Amino acid sequence: MSNSNDLKVAVAGLGTVGGGVLDLLDAQADVLRQRAGRTVRLVACSALVKRDPMPKEAAFYPDARAMARDADYDVLVELIGGGDGIALDIVTTALERGRSVVTANKAMIAHHGLKLANLAQEKDVSLGFEASVAGAIPIIKTLREGLAGNHVSRVMGILNGTCNYILTTMRASGRDFADVLAEAQALGYAEADPTFDIDGIDTAHKLSILAGLAFSMPVDIASVGCEGIRHVSALDIQFADELGYRIKLLGVAERGPDGVRANVYPTMVPLASPLAHVDGVMNAVVTESDFAGRTILGGRGAGARPTASAVVSDLVDLARGAHLPMFGVPVDQLQTYPQVPSALRRTACYIRLTVTDEPGVLADIASALRDEKISMEQVLQRSRSPSETVPVVLILHETDEASLARAIDRISALPTVADRPHPIRIEAM
Amino acid sequence: MSNSNDLKVAVAGLGTVGGGVLDLLDAQADVLRQRAGRTVRLVACSALVKRDPMPKEAAFYPDARAMARDADYDVLVELIGGGDGIALDIVTTALERGRSVVTANKAMIAHHGLKLANLAQEKDVSLGFEASVAGAIPIIKTLREGLAGNHVSRVMGILNGTCNYILTTMRASGRDFADVLAEAQALGYAEADPTFDIDGIDTAHKLSILAGLAFSMPVDIASVGCEGIRHVSALDIQFADELGYRIKLLGVAERGPDGVRANVYPTMVPLASPLAHVDGVMNAVVTESDFAGRTILGGRGAGARPTASAVVSDLVDLARGAHLPMFGVPVDQLQTYPQVPSALRRTACYIRLTVTDEPGVLADIASALRDEKISMEQVLQRSRSPSETVPVVLILHETDEASLARAIDRISALPTVADRPHPIRIEAM
Chain B partners of A290 at a C-beta cutoff of 8 Å? Predict the structure, then answer.
């Protein structure tokens, strides 16, 4: 039974997430009606291939652009993905028609968030994107509403389930990166082309969205530093264990007196931090703010059902009449901050070197560090086997990135040091 | 500058939390205006004693009832506390006048939530209570909005910072309950009369609110089983460590095919659960639902600033025009469920016995358990010191409470067993 008071929903994209949304709308129709105060009704959907069975009452469009342009809906749910192309086209069409949008598309928000926020504001409609970051975890709502009385100083998290699964499995099995990646691909936990996940790009997209919300600033993917997990070895994970850390791929965005910085990199997380215990495909986000203090939100970051839960929470908000600026404040009130130059950024770090086991090696390394005024907190040497190479691990006190890079240059140039090391940052928590 | 579009706020109670709210409204006035889209303006406050300094523009009422009745406000913020008395009077007055209410008062919501929800609905105003459970953690918003597309099957959490501080300190120091409680009282972390906290009553209030929201049912404090932490000993905590658990005071509410059950009791939490790592005064809440899966939210559960953060998030929601039924659905759509009789409730558990170290003791205990068809997963005996008493620890597989109680009767009646033991439940996680 259709009713003029229904919230009419058109879904573009019937893949994993789209299928989850259709399942949810069907399975929870009664409870959604109670909570939304009106019926959330699927009126149209589009996909390259029909789903079996197709929902009876919804019109099917093989062409998403045609649906966005022609169908009679209140909300377009965009689940096609990709930063540009069809996804951006249909979202723009819907907003221009004065219809609201709900999307799970982090790449699109990361690249076009400001433009879309402007358009939504101009047309006085809503653009919900809870599903774009951390799946079922209500982190968008928490930053925009739950922490509305706070200045957020830092937001950081484990935002990519594929990387967290790989790092967790490497630790549990002692196996190396390439091996575990291949297994994850075979199991469907990693894509055939895993670049997007393991090089940190997906995490960077999500971090740029969180930073925009947390600091009420325009989303700026270009300013996010991005390093993935390819260089993390089984040996690093073993040393981390011994030193009381877990290695996690974190996105970290911070606002301080010098401006804002946002970085994605593998991080040594101390065991005392709740992030250290977030394993497998789980996601978690920590926020630090002036009144609320530190909060952590954890849960399933991907998958059909958790993502559908987030999409539908946006739909219920819309049905209930919620209408907020996309980033919590009107677009003209978003603030831009200076970007802290990466050379000035300060962190502690872990460095694993491969050295020839000769007298004087440690003295050379120590003097390279002293020349850059970097002090060592700890040195670990695994075994002694004269004239063979052995691993040496350094934990360095906080220093700026420029000095660190110069020290690594000096150390790498030593004849006794085999390869250029990849430092792993240690975040203060 | 006052403006007819301002959200006019009257605050009743200027103690710790009231002071925090006034500080926040003052410190964040600009950002609140941006996010709320209008000025959140303090127009009146009441307390037994004036605060120094008093906010300049607000009228002061020594009598909260007079303020609730006479002042010109859009929303009354109730921070006096107590389940009945002045708090209930002024909230009722405000609602009857057609004004919205924001409160941090868990006892009042636990005891009168349904009545207040009815009144708010009748007058078409809002009653916000984010601050009543788990301080800065946005768990009310998450259950009512973030998980709106889900059926929640279980909600459980560490909801009382005093108990968690005591249990954490007992573990860290190896000291016993009474000793750590006395210290917590000296430090101001526990009240002079600690009953409310340590006997689980505060946790039960909060759990009844969470269960009401999670299961869309009328809040029912009378149905919450309640057991505190007085009987947890240093020895129990030490055994928990050895067995791979932490002891936490949990509130657990569950909805299954037989109905709903809600209980507060000390619980053995496996180290693999994120709740095991929530230490000190921190709070955390786990939800389990059909689409979102398991989520965890953690943060500061009490204190002036975290509680003020929650109060103000409700104020910003109101200023932004949010207007939701108190428990997420209209009162007449709340569902009542049968209460699972405690005798039928099933859990695994830990039991520590004090026994005379004689041959045959374990055989007697084992046959008492066998007679009740309870199987043992593990037995630990600390040391052997003939003819003295020694601790024996049993880990029992899941059984119903009635059989467990009978088995404990039988075991306590054995001449070799010194005291009646207190079982500690092991929740499946």
Answer: 27, 305
